[in-house]
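Morning. Coffee machine broken again, so started the prediction first thing and wrote up yesterday's gels while waiting. Chain of 293 residues, entered below exactly as on the submission form.
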Amino acid sequence: MPRDIEVRSYDELLEEYALERGNREYEPVRLGFGTVDAELRGISAGQVLGVAARTGVGKTWLLETVGHNFAARHDAGCLALSLEMPGLEWAERALAIFADVAPEQVEHWAKQGELATLAAEFLDAMANALVIEHPVALDELPAAFAEARSRLPVPLRLVLVDYLGLVGTSGRDAYERASAVGRGLKEVAKQEKVAIIVATQLSRAGGDGTEPVSLPMLRDSGVIEEALDFLIGAWQPARAANASPADAIALRDVLRVAILKNRKGASGRFVDLRFRPDSRRLYEEADPFAGIQ
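Came back before lunch.
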């Protein structure tokens, strides 16, 4: 049976735009990194941001930090699809980020029977955050979002996906599957009126994770780039084999990100984020208070 296709006039679109953007309660999703947020002007409902990097660079830490920062809003819900990492590890990292301690410290609390007491404040802060750790196919996402909404007392605004390559779909090869997921996430974001932030892997052209990221390094398909509204590339320059001793020290714990695509403005901006020493929470170094609880 053919589906109904909605045709809308500019009057209708601008009326809805005025209601949404003119609403004092409307607030697009911010990452919590001042310069990046200023450049992107927020991830609106229906938009998708990709975070591209090689394995081990820090994509998951970045997504977890964004989830931590977003939770401070209290007026909106977040759903994380931890498709690679077990849910217990995702929760361990989230608590470590919140408490600004090493993940090993969280494990120690559990072994000492102290976890329930020490996690109370974290649980209150993350009351509107949910996690799915089991495999989810692209066509199952609407049902997953519906289930999340049934458990949230606030609107679902943000979905974190770790990572794109593990979202199930059909296709003859990796290129077709990646293309389908890239397009599908955009369609789902628009239909479900959520902002999606998805981690994606770079191809071998991305080197060892110490080199500046560029668009040709995206794994499997240029369709991913086309489907995304925003794309951020990330790497760790201090780990480069040719880094000078001074740079290795100065850039230690730095995750350098480049805005490779920006639907709302200019691209090309480089921003240095820094990992907190123990918790690995990311913050923008230019903001002296961003890394402090």
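The CA atoms of residues 4 and 191 lie 14 Å apart. Going to sketch it on the whiteboard this afternoon.
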